[in-house]
Amino acid sequence: MNDIFPDPSSVKALALDLDGTALRPDTTMSDRTLRALKACQDRGIAVIFCTGRAVDAAEPYRLPLGAGGPMVYFNGAEVVDMPGGRVLSATMLEREAADFCVDLSRRTGVYYQIFFPGTPEYPRGKLMAERQSEETEMYRKHTGIQAVIGDLKEALAAPGITGCIKSMFLAEPEIQETLRPRLIERFGSRIYVARTLRNFLEVMAAGVSKGRGLALALEYRGLAPEGVIALGDEENDLPMFEVAGFSVAPANAKDKVREAADRVIGSNAQDGAAVFLEEFLGKK
Length: 284
Known about the structure:
The protein has about 280 residues and is an alpha/beta fold. The longest helix is centred in the middle third of the chain and has 15 residues, at about 175-185. The protein has two domains: about 10-90 and about 210-284, HAD superfamily/HAD-like (Rossmann fold); about 95-205, Hypothetical Protein, Haloacid Dehalogenase-like Hydrolase, Chain: A, domain 2, CATH 3.30.1240. The strands form four sheets. It has a six-stranded mixed β-sheet, with helices on one face. It is about 40% helix and about 25% strand. It has helices spanning about 20, 30-40, 55-65, 95-110, 135-145, 150-155, 175-185, 210-220, 240-245, 255-260, 270-284; strands spanning about 15, 45-50, 70-75, 80, 85-90, 95, 110-115, 125-130, 150, 165, 165-170, 190-195, 200-205, 230, 245-250, 265.
């Protein structure tokens, strides 16, 4: 498994997860990875971000690449044409589900935040939480996005608000596992719940996934899924693996992600994605 490659002549795009895959543990993108991705673009291979991040949180990595076209954000809740920022597809979490999560957060004391859709004041959307805490600061350092502090119940009840792009609990994995069954028991197939990083439990609308987002991005680009290499490390990347013709997981990926991948590469701390792409381009 670890020495196979897709047919170089068939690859037209990379579906690229950021955190845990293309980014090092400190969330930087190494010069080596940047060079490998630019080399792919020079060979006519499109780089499609497929990330749980918001647009603004992914921009520091897209800009140096100069990558454009439909990209997948918020785990597939939005497909956005970059660099213009036109939203091509948006799937909202219903207000009732977000409201339930606020209640759950208040009862348990677990930190919770919501991404609201864009407004004239916040064109690319607004992140809100109910308190300033170490989780707020941790998320700001991780993504560059500062949460606006306010009453989430009031924000959800505001005129014109029918739901949100996505929401997330920030907590240790063992706490997440006490929340997940309560969410599924209440809403079942009406929601999509996924752990995206160690401390992130995201709650989105049913039907949202990186797989669906990638399929839409490819449709807009006129590309066939068979010609795509998907790289990812977390459970939210598995739907993307199902769409792409070839899947790659770094050594730091979750067990079930490595098991699902066509190839396992070096960890993100070892620039595994860059090494794989260099070897792949050497065969092209």
